[in-house]
Amino acid sequence: MKTTKYRLYTSVLLAFAGGTLFFSSCKKDEEIEEPEQTEEVKVRPITTQSSAYVTQLFDYTPGPGQFVNTAFGDADAAKTVLNGKQGLVSLGSYGGNIVLGFDHTVLNQSGKEDIVIYNNASASFAEPGVVWVMQDVNSNGKPDDIWYELSGSAQNSAGYTRNYSITYTRPSSPASEVSWTDNLGNSGSVKTNTFYKQAYYPVWITANTYTLTGTLLPSSNINHAGIITSTPFTSGYADNSAGSDKLDIANAIDEKGNKVALNGIDFIKVQTGIPYNLGLLGELSTEVKGIADISIEK
User: Fold this and answer.
1) Residue 169 and residue 255: Cα distance in Å, rounded?
2) Is the pTM of this model over 0.85?
3) Most buried among 16, 29, 67, 111, by the most CB within 10 A?
């Protein structure tokens, strides 16, 4: 949470006044694939009763983090992002995610952005999250069809990696840092700090390890020397631009990076995109305040 993190960071700097504190690229639009289906996908129409905002919470699985198991990182926090844009939930470290649904199909409008995700980012501090969308192809009201990533400006950058996984291990002492290993042979930990002393590993996850998989974004925009900054990407991610991020369903891509033509989407998932320790500010953790269908938001 940016405001809280900066308040803590500023307090520490003041306390030490007088001293020194350091601390595969997409094909060129040559083909657009249609989702595999045996019949036309049904569109749930917009009615006078439709909400512009997400109305259903299907899953909340955060990565370990300083706000997990607090009022900003539990099931109740996840529900605050429904039906408006004044909630706040932290997704924790890399891979942490939330799955939400609309009460209608958000249509893919030609030449227009379709979805807005509200956040608490600032001009110099972003915590980018990857956004995924899904059509209710089988019309069962559940997010059990195919997820498509919405491509953003970092897609062709060094460090961008699809199908990246991290496995977190429950520490022997609940308030200790949480170790992790990834599918590239790397290891590290989600470090604790003196400001949040509760367990960082989600207490409702009963297994001693759990694995989160998604798309890895580059960490090259983060400056960890002196005052910590995390410059926003140009476009395409959640918790990236100050206040809100507008996204276009037309940017949906499949697992091979090919564009996919979707008539609209019914479900949306946001996933923390970068595993990074921000020192006094804790882990990089994507946050969401609300999500709306731009076409009917007033």
Assistant:
1) 28
2) yes
3) 67
